[in-house]
Design a protein that fits this description.
Layout lengths: L17 E5 L11 H7 L3 E7 L1 H11 L9 E5 L2 H4 L5 H15 L5 E6 L1 H5 L4 H12 L4 E6 L9 H10 L10 E5 L4 H13 L5 E4 L14 E5 L5 H9 L3 E2 L7 H15 L4 H22 L7 E4 L6 H11 L3 E7 L4 H10 L5 E6 L1 H11 L3 E4 L1 H9 L4 E3 L2 H4 L8 H23 L1
Parallel strand pairs: 1-12, 2-3, 2-4, 4-5, 6-7, 6-8, 8-9, 10-11, 10-13, 11-12, 13-14
Helix pairs in contact: 7-9, 10-11, 11-17, 12-13
Bound molecules: iron/sulfur cluster.
C-alpha cells in the first residue's frame, strides 16, 4: 500500500477462534530484560531482590558483561529472610545505601522483584517510596517485578517501562513518543525515518538518561515498537497519551504500515512519505527476497515465548512465503494485536497460553519445517529431527525496521538451509 489513507478493514485472522490453553509452560523469567535494558539506560542500576538462582541467571545470561562496570546486581535473600527471621527491609536499605555511596553515577535505581521476594511478599513499592525520599533528588528509586511466576521473559521490559510512566513529568507538548528498548543503531534508523518525515518533537522511552527532557500528557501520541508492552500501553493511556495502533515494524510491510500510522497522525504529505521510505523499502524488499528463498513454501510452528509470535508469523507468511501451522503466544493483547491479526492469513491454529505436552503433540503431528521455541524445548525437538529456532535470539538481535528486514528473514532461513543441505548430503 502506498498511500496514507487508512487501510481498508481486513479480516485475516481477526475472527479466528483462539485456542486458550492453561497448563505447564516453558519460559524464561522477566529478569532477562535487564540484559538489554541496562545497556539502554546508562545511569540506571537494576538491583534484583532475589536468591542465588536469580544471581546465577543474571550472570550466565549476561555473560561477559559482568566484567565491565556493572549496572545490575543482586541483593541476595538469605534463608533467614525467606523464613521471615530477619527484617528484609532493613537489610535492603543498608544494601542500597552502600551501593549508592559507592556509585555516584546512578540516577535511577530499579528494585527488581523476583519469585522469592514475591513469595515472602516483600513490599518493594513501599521500599522504593521510602528509598526515594531518602536519596532524592539525586536518585529516583522505582520498582517492578521480574519474577518468573506466571510471566514470560519480555514482560520484564514491559514492567520496567510501565513503572517509569507514572513519574514522568506532565507536559502539554504535542509530541511523538516511541516506546520500546531497541539497539542504538536501530533506534537511530527509526529516528532518522520519523524526523525525515518532518516530525521533530520526538522522544524515546526508555531514554538513555534520567534527566532527558521527557514528559507525557494529553497531547502526547505514542507508537509501540515492541508487541509485549501491554502494561506500558495501559500506563501511558492513564496519563492521557494516545496510542497510534499499527502493525509492528518487522519486515518491509510492518515497518511501512507502522510509519504510515505516524504519518497520518502528523499529516505528512504523501510525497514526503514516499521520498523518505521509497529507497529503504526497496532495499528491504530486495534483502528479504534474497534471504527468504529457503523459506518459500515451508511450514512454521510457533511455541509461545517472546510475545513476538504474531507479528513474526505475519512477516513469515506474507513476506517470506511460509505457511504457519500454529502460532502460539503467551498472551494476546486484543488492542495491540488487532492489526497483526487482520493481516495474518487465515488457516493456522492461534493459541494463547500453554499446555506444553498437548502443544508438543500437535507440533510432532504437524512435523513443521521450522519450529520457533524456547531454549528448553529446542534441544529435545532437534533430537527428534525437527529444525528449531530459539525465540530469545529474536529479542537479542537487531530485527526491527527496513535495514534489518533481510537479517530477520535470514535468522529463520539459516536453520532451514542447514537442514536442506544435510538432507542433500545424506541423499548423495
Ligand atoms: S526470578 Fe524466579 S525464575 Fe527468575 S531466576 Fe529468580 S527464581 Fe528463577
Amino acid at each position: 500500500m502506498n498511500d496514507l489513507t487508512p487501510p481498508a478493514p481486513a479480516a485475516g485472522c481477526s475472527a479466528t477462534p483462539v485456542l486458550k490453553e492453561r497448563g505447564q509452560h516453558e519460559v524464561f523469567c522477566g529478569l532477562t530484560g535487564i540484559i538489554w535494558l541496562h545497556r539502554k539506560m546508562q545511569d540506571a542500576f537494576f538491583l534484583v531482590i532475589g536468591s542465588r538462582t536469580c544471581a546465577h541467571l543474571l550472570q550466565s545470561a549476561a555473560g561477559v558483561m559482568i566484567f565491565a562496570e556493572p549496572r545490575f546486581g543482586t541483593a541476595i535473600l538469605e534463608e533467614s529472610d525467606l523464613a521471615g527471621l530477619a527484617d528484609a527491609h532493613e537489610e535492603l536499605d543498608r544494601e542500597v545505601s552502600k551501593l549508592l555511596s559507592r556509585r555516584s553515577d546512578i540516577r535511577q535505581l530499579f528494585l527488581v522483584g523476583s519469585c522469592p521476594s514475591e513469595v515472602i511478599k516483600l513490599d518493594l513499592a513501599r521500599a522504593a517510596e521510602r528509598l526515594t525520599q531518602k536519596h532524592a533528588p539525586h536518585v529516583r528509586v522505582l520498582n517492578y517485578s521480574g519474577s518468573g511466576i506466571e510471566t514470560t521473559f519480555t514482560q520484564g521490559e514491559d514492567a520496567c517501562l510501565a513503572a517509569m510512566v507514572p513519574v514522568l513529568p506532565e507536559t502539554d507538548r504535542r509530541q511523538l513518543m516511541l516506546v520500546g528498548a531497541l539497539p542504538d543503531v536501530v533506534e537511530d534508523q527509526m529516528l532518522d525515518l520519523v524526523r525525515g518525515m518532518g516530525i521533530e518533537d520526538v522522544c524515546v522511552l526508555p531514554a538513555p538518561r534520567a534527566e532527558a527532557e521527557m514528559g507525557v500528557g494529553e497531547n502526547t501520541v505514542y507508537a509501540l515498537t515492541q508487541p509485549f508492552l501491554g502494561d506500558t500501553h495501559a500506563a501511558l493511556t492513564r496519563r492521557g497519551a494516545r496510542h497510534l495502533p499499527a502493525p509492528f515494524p518487522f519486515g518491509e510491510e510492518g515497518t511501512t504500515a507502522w510509519l504510515q500510522a505516524i504519518a497520518r497522525e502528523f499529516d505528512v504529505p504523501q510525497e514526503r512519505f514516499e521520498a523518505v521510505t521509497a529507497a529503504p523499502r526497496a532495499r528491504a524488499r530486495k534483502a528479504v527476497a534474497r534471504a527468504a528463498q529457503p523459506l518459500d513454501g515451508k511450514s512454521v510452528f510457533f511455541f509461545p515465548d517472546s510475545q513476538l509470535e504474531l507479528p513474526l508469523a505475519r512477516f513469515l507468511t506474507r513476506e517470506c512465503g511460509m505457511q504457519a501451522v500454529e502460532v502460539g503466544a503467551p498472551f494476546i493483547h486484543s488492542t495491540l494485536m488487532r492489526d497483526e491479526l487482520a493481516l495474518l492469513p487465515d488457516g493456522q491454529v492461534i493459541s494463547e497460553g500453554q499446555h506444553v505436552d498437548k502443544q508438543l503433540d500437535r507440533c510432532r503431528a504437524a512435523s513443521p519445517d521450522l519450529t520457533v521455541c524456547g531454549l528448553g524445548l529446542a534441544n529435545p525437538l532437534e533430537a527428534e529431527g525437527l529444525t528449531t529456532k530459539w525465540a530469545i535470539e529474536l529479542v537479542f538481535t537487531p530485527v526491527h525496521f527496513y535495514e534489518q528486514a533481510g537479517d530477520l528473514a535470514s535468522l529463520f532461513a539459516r536453520p532451514v538451509r542447514r537442514k536442506d543441505l544435510l538432507q542433500l548430503e545424506a541423499a548423495e
